[in-house]
Every structure is written in C-alpha cells, then in structure tokens.
C-alpha cells in the first residue's frame, strides 16, 4: 500500500513526524514523539538524581525539563482551543450567510 493511500489514523509516529516537517501545525504523531522523548528524559534524570545522591544541578535540570514539558503541553492546548474557536466562528458565519441567502430568495 502506498503512503498516499494510507489513512492518517494508521500512519506511524515516525511517518507523522516526517510529514509534520512539510505541513503547517502539529499532528498527533509529533505530539506523541515529543511526549515519549520527555518521558525518557524524565526517567534518565530521575535515575541520575538517585545515582548522584540528589545533586542540585541534576535536580535543577529535572525541574527545568518538567517546566518546559508543561509549558509546551499548555501551549498545544491553547492552540487547539483557538482552532476550535475559529471553526465555531466559521460555522456560525456560514450559517448566518446561508440564512441571509435563504431570506433573499423568498
């Protein structure tokens, strides 16, 4: 099966990441890849915290990485909310135009 006929739901994470290079915005595969990368970073840093006996520098890096992860997640939520609001406004505008067009023909 070629890549052009593969439905978006069955594409892999790697294909989503590569396709996101050429498409505007984000997709679910890109967000998953970012999340998995951060989870691996968290596991590594927690392991380093235990191995170094709670080194302040490793703890600071862990705190910074958690803050970065949460801020990126928050930003993605904000983008989704704005896109949803735009869709609602467009649907309301289309409905208004359709109602105005109906009134003119009667």
UniProtKB/TrEMBL annotation:
Provide one Gene Ontology cellular component.
endoplasmic reticulum membrane
Task: Determine if Transmembrane is one of this entry's keywords.
Answer: yes
The membrane-spanning stretches of this chain are 36-54, 60-80
Gene Ontology terms describing biological process: vacuolar proton-transporting V-type ATPase complex assembly
Extract the Pfam families matched here. Answer: Pkr1
Keyword vocabulary terms for this entry? Membrane, Transmembrane, Transmembrane helix
**The keyword Membrane is assigned to this record:** yes
Database matches in PANTHER family: V-TYPE ATPASE ASSEMBLY FACTOR PKR1
**Record-given protein name:** ER protein Pkr1-domain-containing protein
